[in-house]
Amino acid sequence: MDPLTQDTKIAVQNVTKIFQSKQGKKQGHEVVALKDLSLEVKDGEFLVIVGASGCGKTTLLNLVAGFDKSSDGQILLDGNPVTGITPECGMIFQQYALFPWKTVQENVEFGMKMKRMPRKDRKARADRFIDIVGLKGFERSYPHHLSGGMKQRVSIARSLANDPKVMLLDEPFAALDAMTRQVLQEQLVRIYEKHRKTIIFITHSIDEALLLSSRIMVMTARPGRIAQEIINDLPYPRNAEVQLSSRYMELKRMIWDSVQAEVMKSMEVEAD
Ligand SMILES: Nc1ncnc2c1ncn2[C@@H]1O[C@H](COP(=O)(O)OP(=O)(O)OP(=O)(O)O)[C@@H](O)[C@H]1O
To answer: If pLDDT is split at 50, 70 and 90, which confidence band does 1 have?
Structure first.
């Protein structure tokens, strides 16, 4: 592997993750989710990971966030090994993971309150990010009064308010309707352009990957490794014109071929 450069934010080095399946610890009941996987994410990069279902995308994100430990290899964040939950990483899930008994304002303020930020400061910061995600006027609403898209915007505001170095998003828009999804994708690109967080984003949608990323990584069928890496050189804003360009089609075809090959392999793995 190349030596780490100064702007390397995350380095995943020869990571293997083996789960004991539900059948117990008998031989042959291990699931090798990731095998000898290495990758680097540069500071300010928007990396999108695509790959067949079950290839280990969520497992990888959980390891970067420190929710789980690798069986072998290591992950470095700013050059330091990740050994437990990393407060520098903000995680956003498909299911919004909001506190149902807290208002929008309280949800967004939660992390800052945990860090004992003075009330006035955290309110000002929450107000700012609630505004950025377009939820001004909903500060006192509870999650059950909000649509899926609005709840996801609360999650994004909460994450941004904590000022994470890295944002990890696991299929955050998968449960949303197409229109809402598009609005949130555009919003996320704007936030990315303004705040330049380092982002790792998982999706099953090649279009979403092309709209958002600066780099796309296709993972192999389980055990997950890198099958292909694509620098997304499409210009911003990735509007209708860009989406109809020949370069867009070319990249889409390239990724589709790669994903499809891995999906076929993963079906063989499942059949074994
Ligand atoms: N806690 C666990 N115990 C046992 N096996 C697990 C566990 N977590 C994940 N696995 C297995 O590891 C493999 C990778 O799972 P993972 O959820 O990372 O895949 P994924 O690429 O995110 O899938 P999807 O796209 O369907 O969300 C799968 O075969 C899964 O069944």
So the answer is: very low
**Would you say residue 58 lies in a domain?**
yes
Domain that holds residue 84: 1-88+168-175+199-272
Q: Is 41 left (phi over 0), alpha (psi -120 to 50) or beta?
A: beta
DSSP class of residue 162 equals T
- Given this model, what pLDDT does residue 24 score? 54
Please report the pLDDT score of residue 6 as a whole number: 64
95 domain residue, yes or no: no
**Ligand 1 mean position, distance from CA 222 (Å):** 9
75 C-alpha to ligand 1 centroid (Å): 19
Question: How much is the pLDDT for 4?
Answer: 57
Q: Which helix (H) or strand (E) holds 47?
A: strand 46-50
- For a ligand 1 pocket test, name from 34, 59, 173, 220 the mutation site with the most ligand atoms within 8 angstroms of its C-beta: 59
Q: Is 158 in the pocket of ligand 1 (CB under 6 A)?
A: no
**CA gap 59, 80 in Å, rounded:** 20
pLDDT > 70 in the chain, percent: 94
Nearest CA owner, ligand 1 atom 18: 56
- Counted domains in the chain: 1
Quick one: pLDDT band at residue 22, thresholds 50, 70, 90? low
21 lines ligand 1 (CB under 6 A): yes
